[in-house]
Each structure stands twice: as C-alpha cells, then as structure tokens.
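Sanity check record (used in CI):
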Amino acid sequence: MAQILAPSTQWQMRISKSSPNASPITSNMWSSLLWKQNKKVSPTSSAKFRVMAIKSDNSIINRLEGLLNLDITPFTDKIIAEYIWIGGTGIDVRSKSRTISKPVEHPSELPKWNYDGSSTGQAPGDDSEVILYPQAIFKDPFRGGNNILVICDSYTPQGEPIPTNKRHRAAEIFSNPKVQAEVPWYGIEQEYTLLQTNVKWPLGWPVGGYPGPQGPYYCSAGADKSFGRDISDAHYKACLYAGINISGTIGEVMPGQWEYQVGPSVGIEAGDHIWASRYILERITEQAGVVLSLDPKPIEGDWNGAGCHTNYSTKSMREDGGFEVIKKAILNLSLRHKDHISAYGEGNERRLTGKHETASINTFSWGVANRGCSIRVGRDTEKNGKGYLEDRRPTSNMDPYVATSLLAETTLLWEPTLEAEALAAQKLALKV
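Expected output for Glutamine synthetase:
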C-alpha cells in the first residue's frame, strides 16, 4: 500500500440496509471468463457445457438462476444469515445458513449457534458440539437484499475459546487500554494465486509447462499477460457491496497471482475484514470453477511467492516525531523476530529466502524503501518524520487476528530489557 489514510467507520461493525436496487453476484457474470478460459477445451468438457447452458434461454441453469436471484424482501421480513468460521487447519473457512426473523444491524442481535466440530478437526466425536459466537456482520453479495454474512469465533459449550479461535486472544490485546489509546491502524495486502481446477497449475500457464519469465505480468493488461482479472474485479465489487474496507487490487509479479488491499482498519476490524474477504473470494472462485491458493510459494523456482504484507501505525507514529516511535517499534520487532516468524503463516520458509523481494527468514532487517528487508519504511515517512511501517514477513496464509494483535503486543505492551534494547539498537544502527 502506498499510504495509510483515515479508517472507515465500518470498524463499529454496523451495516446499513442494502439498496433495493443492488443485485447480488450471479453465475452469469462468469460467462465471459469461462469462454476465455476454455477456448481450447473440447465441447464435452463440463466447464464448456456450463457456459453453453448459461447461454441457453430455456435451460435448467437459467431457471435455477431465476430462483437464486429471487428478491424475497417484498414477501417476508425474514433474512438469511450465513454463519462463517475458521476450521481446524486454521486457514479453511466454513459456513452454514440459518433464517433470522428480521433484518439486523449488529452482531449482538444474532443468536449463538453450534456445529459439529468432529467434522472440522476441532472436537472429538463423543463431544463434538462447538458453539459459534457472532462477532461481525457484512452484507451478503451473493444473496443480496437484507441477507448477511456473519463472522463468528468458536467456543466450547462451557464458554472457553477452542485452540483455533485466535480472535479471542486478539480481542483481549486490542481491548487493552494502552492499545486502545494508540488506535492501531492496519493496511493488509493479501496476495493469492488462481489455479486451474483439475491440474492445480496457475491460471493462464500451459499445463505442465511455464510461461515466459517474470517481468511483463505485474499490473499488466492483455490476454497473454493477465489471467483472472474477471475474478479480481468481481471480488473487488463484492467486497465493496459487503461493506469490507477494500482499498485496491493489482495483478502480481507471477502470472496468475493477484493482490487486494484491505484497510486502513482499526484493531480487531482488520482480522474480521480479511476473513470476510477471503470467504467471498472462495465463493467467487467456486462459481468461476477456479481454485484459490494461499500457498506462500505455489511454484518453486524463479517465481515470486505470495505474502500478506501488513502496514501498521499507531497514533504516536502518525503524529509529529513519529519516526522515532517507529524506530523504537522496529527495535522491539527485531528482538521478537522468531516469535513473529512462528506466527506469520505456514510454509513461510519457502518464501522468505532473501530473493524475490523478501528478506531471509533467519535475519531481521529494516530499511527505507527496501523491499528486501523484514520491515520497510516508506520515503514519505522518512521525509515527513511520521507515518507507518510495513512488515513484509507475514505470508499469504497468515491468520490476520494473530499477525495484527502480535504487532500491537510487541510494539505497545512488550518491554525489552535495557541491555537487549541497547544491543539491538547498535546492531540495527538505530538511535531511539
């Protein structure tokens, strides 16, 4: 992200009633995408058949589409709430639907629910009930109307957070008075890779082969350079519809790889918005017949990996003299480098090699405008003497609740010894 601006009021976790003229995402949005992706596929392929069915005026698909697009608002006050939670791997999103008697504007108006934790790797079969607590709501871009997406976290029937519930600990950190006083802002750059369904090879790549070397694909246009733009654009609009604070998208360096940015977000909102945006992206790629990958290094070799760079600032960093506060934060981050690396996603050692715009996973570094460092500080921040830092270590599959709250904990709550601070300052050439 080029710059951290003022956050939206969405962090209050309220949503307004959707416009009656707004329409949800429908599968006919994918016709052009599917035609382009399957030009060379035989007419008997399922993807091609799906396109032909969508084009047919009298097909079963079109009749189904009509039912999916039904606006139930004039006929009932009831809405559909899609409860979303994180599964046992810590990266998979799960969801199920329920009817709510009337539209709601805040998660406190929603009932708790439960699910079979033995089927998600989160509970044993003889005690499988896990309880969902609604925490944030967004407008549903797929069903439209007053229907909603509900971000939940998971608890035992006794009210204890289960091990994969990272939101609970993050909420404790963000509710600390010292953290609240500093109003931490986050801008998260989520990179992802689109894969062909059957072969799990990047979109636009020859099956079993490779495109030309990196260079022409970043922020590109053209059928031979940009693969998956329809998905990126649909996701962009769906997030705006939902009320997610998405701030931009770009085509990434590796072909078939994209990025979107969420933020600036305040505190726990950052995690809620990233998880909701990931869920929406999973649903869109599902409709498009494309596989979403958050693997940090989907293709070995001379190709960029996928990260989740996290831009961070506090009130003190944003005020006059903030650059000195940023340098103190960098010092703290250097002393807890291993703690952050262990919390920044699975498989990160394959990405943080010191090549392809990354620092080595084993060495902490910082620099101004240096994308090969652990922490990058923008030139505007150096020039203005205040601003934000970019933590380039988090990988694409990191848990945003963990990454954002750990940044706040390390820079605002954790205090190193004076000896460790002095040694780190000398090593990093920091004067704080």
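Residues 1-5, 8-21, 30-55 have pLDDT under 50 and may be disordered. If this sentence no longer matches the regenerated tokens, the check is flagged for review.
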